[in-house]
Amino acid sequence: MKTWIVRFVSLYVFNLVVLVLIGVLLTSVRVGWAAFWAALVLTAATIWLKPLVQRMFRSIAARSAERRTRLGEKLVQGLVVFVVEVVVWIAVVLLSGVDVRGFLWGWIIPPLALLLAFAAYDLIDDRIEARAGALYDRALGGRRGSTDGATTRGTAAPPIPETGGRSAAAPPRPAASRAEETPRKDRYDGLTEEQRRMLDDLG
Question: Residue ranges of region Disordered (predicted)?
Fold first, then answer.
């Protein structure tokens, strides 16, 4: 899924630039704001329509390939590529608001421009798609990170158990401490204070 999105978006941006340049450089082609929709049509035609048309014309040309020389075969293959671009350009003009005037400058030169543009794109498509993929991953990662942050901020702190006003329950005291606090019962029990002092002096 990611590969198709990156490829489609990168090719769409490239086609948008190409169509704007064609509208600026050729007075016979008026693009204007229709470039956005025309770039979408051109991108879809390049990805799905162009391979089908190219396969059809090549199968027709292959029927007589054995009767042509090597140079003739190259010329036929070049003509097939150009005819495919003409078909793509016709689809763009018919399905968008691009205005074309004149046969040569409106229907022949723009397909040649597209042919040169796609040849240049084939040389740099890997770098363009790699850059688009990095931007896609960064945008998707930032969205996921913000979602995780919102989840963390929305998590309530665990409740603190009630301790009856004390911060924590007091640990049990050792038996020795409890013994020290218990009143001692020794040999002086039952005597008066004066008798205890006398016994202390004797002892």
Answer: 145-203
Q: How far apart are CA 91 and CA 42, in angstroms?
A: 8
Name the CA radius of gyration of the chain, rounded.
44
Does the predicted model carry a pTM greater than 0.85?
A: no
What are the C-alpha distances in Å from 86 to residues 104, 126, 149, 195?
A: 12, 26, 52, 130
Tell me how far apart the alpha carbons of residues 154 and 163 are, in angstroms, rounded to a whole number: 27
Mean of the per-residue pLDDT values of the chain: 79
Cβ proximity of 13 and 44 under 8 Å: no
Q: Could you give the percent of the chain with pLDDT greater than 70?
A: 69
User: By three-state DSSP, how is residue 186 classified?
Assistant: coil
Spatial separation of the C-alpha atoms in residues 202 and 77, rounded to whole Å = 133
% helix, strand, coil for the chain, step of 5: 75, 0, 25
> How far apart (Å, rounded) are the C-alpha atoms in residues 114 and 19?
9
